[in-house]
Records
---
Amino acid sequence: MFSKTSEIYDVIIIGAGQAGLSAGYFLNKHGLSYVIFERGSIGESWLNQRWDSLRLDTPAWMNCLPGDLPEVGKRDQFIPSQDFHAGLTKYVENNRIPVKEHYRVTALDKDDSTGFFNVETDHNGEMEIWLAKKVIVASGMLNEPKTPSISKTLPANITQLHSFHYKNPDQLPAGNVLIVGSAKSGAQIAEEIAATAHKVYLATSKVGRLPRRYRGADITDWFVRSGNFELRTDELADPSIALNDVPFLVSGDGPLGHTLSLQGLYRDGVTLLGSLLRWEEGKLYFDDSTKANIQFGDQISAKIKQRVDEYIQKNGIAASPADVDDADLPDPEGLSVTTDTQLDIAEHGITTVIWATGLRGNFGWLKLPVFDQQSKLVHEEGVSPIRGLFFLGFPWLRTRKSGTIYGLQDDAAYITDQLAAQLSID
């Protein structure tokens, strides 16, 4: 049974991560009444959906919320995820942002007769309906683990967990580990576990790679200086790029981070395999795509470095020559590739499978017609065709940097300006 609140907010924000808090910062500037509902604690995903040793893979100067600056002397460092989470809590306090923690939104709808949005919440079993003139959905696109159906066929004595729930190697039983998925999470976890007594097998996939540093600067410095991050979504020659964009392999581990590559993992003792196909009679079967997957990472890295070289030459920049980066050395002959396309679980002592197979968004609570036939959110630069509904913090919302912490300054300012303009007309 729901109780209905009497107050009508100008805005309700769903999600108290970096996107929702950034919107709150600008709503304060506009002098609007609002509240943020968060299903867990402030910055919940940073608290419970990251492993212990994770560091952000962009330098500190790119991870400041609106109105903040990096700590003195730490501009180019890569901060632990726990420190970023602590910073979100401090940001709420410093900017007096009203957040209701442990308020899970169970439904969002709009009453056409009043024009107000109805936001249903569950707070420790207390069900309420809140009213708002405008709503910003800042809950993120990736909050629920995806696990392939093959996971249901594995023997009961194999420990299985998703990278979503992985914390550290100490939680793993004795024995060896198969990690399925070699995008950023899978590769970083493989690197961590490979430094322990566990032997690691990695089922790879086609993922691009970045050199961490190039020509005397972090690669992200070159991206920003060259305008790479400013590419607009509506300027993409192929819109499917925005839908299928996978984060490049790179790591923030170490004082200035480091390059992360499949061949580098091989040198760390990781056995590289193709994509996992099936499980049958005690054996895991893989395709033979490993060499192609390594070469794809090499090609992307080479292409990115070529673009940086062209930018430097075109603008007459006095940049350092390229240093030798062992992790970024290409492997055109596939010397890092195992010829195995099958693994006997018992023979290889595999006791754990970690599914680094990605996340999906759960929008079952969104009771409005905001999806197209491909289940893609319909909006124009974060502004929904349903008047008063906005989206923030999603990849490629407006530009390439949308969905990153670095992109929130511009996106949150734009969305809250659009929202305030609507309120002035309504």
---
Amino acid sequence: MLHNEQQISEFKSKSGLARIMKASVYSVQGLKHAWRSEHAFRQELMVSIPALCVAALLPVSILEKLALVFVLAFVLAVELLNSAIEAVVDRISLERHPLSKNAKDLGSAAVFVSVIVAALTWAAILAPVVLG
């Protein structure tokens, strides 16, 4: 292999509608796995579902409703990425290693930041509604 050539995985998808369909199937499989195996994802989803109902009923602008929905989806997406990082680290080795700890801690920190952003967004939008 030449120095500037990239090696391409045999698992790399092709283009077209078939790729979109396969990607959708893989995404649903990932969501099912997260629901079955990831406690934090389930907890965050169980908070998000009633919160979505509240967001729909709030007397706020459509952009504020979208912000409330977006930050909930953002938390779930970051949680999924954190779970993916943890799975890759565990796939490489289950032994304790400082770099493995760093990767997992950084993923957890990303989830924490997303939750803080969501909480602040909800507080900023709800405060004028609740306080009148």
---
Amino acid sequence: MESIDLLVLRTSCDWLKAGERVLLATVARTWGSSPRPVGSMMALRGDGRVIGSVSGGCIEDDLVHRYTTAYNGEGMPEGLPRVVRYGVSADEAHRFGLPCGGTLELILEFNPSLPSLEQLLAQLDAGNLVRRELDLGTSDTSLTATHAPEQFSFDGQRMVNTLGPGDRMLLIGAGALAEYLATMALFNGFKVAVCDPRHEYMDGWNVAGVEKLVGMPDDMVRAFAPDLRSCIIGLSHDPKLDDLALLEALHSPAFYIGVIGSRRNSQLRRERLVEHFGQTQASLKRLHGPIGIYIGSKTPAEIAVSVMAEVLAIKNGVALPSAANVTTAKRAREASA
């Protein structure tokens, strides 16, 4: 499953190629609570069809009423991009379903340049990170390849949005837990691959949309080439497989590196990596294990939920409370028993 940004851009491109009129809306600024973060996008076709989201639905409905033939005989306008604001007053915030005190500002691009969108998609499909800059005074768009994600910005005149490649997940070990976790990651817009040199595991493992890699995990991690939008998770329960993958992953800029295992096994793994593989306590600070947040999970499906929640929290820059840490939570429960 593609990320929502890619889906919006690709659909916009397809609509423009088909001769449809298209409005591309981007959340530019927010004040107070807002349903969607800055940089979120939606595309609106001239007949009222919508892909993507900038709110819980009410603002999308208003844009459909204003700019499409579904309710407006004039349809979508031409011209330079516009800035519109929703939720300035309490009454308007309530009308558009915004949280109390919530206000958001949108940039509306009418019939964005098809060649520019095609070039952007070509770069994203090639795995490149692209800085898209829009000048609202001229509607000129520039695309620049970059190596580091940049915060979305809008100064009232120029919008800068860094796009793609999508988040990626590499799972080591083709078991039941990997099936659940891969499915959840796909629904969250990750591109997922699973690696396992054991044919007896890989032959019976099948989740649509996941790349299957048969080979030694350390080789597969190098081939995966983890970047800032990548996570690597060991699920094999076999130290010969998980440890090799972790050693390679720790040399990468991956935003999340984790491995399944009990508290005891996690501690033994850390001691093993320090004693035999030259790691230090400092280098192992990036290693998550036991993985997941504490929800009392027992089944593979529940464990996958806890792991996916931890991955998303770290990806989104959320500091989890100590009570969510598996080791801390279990010690607290044992102490109170």
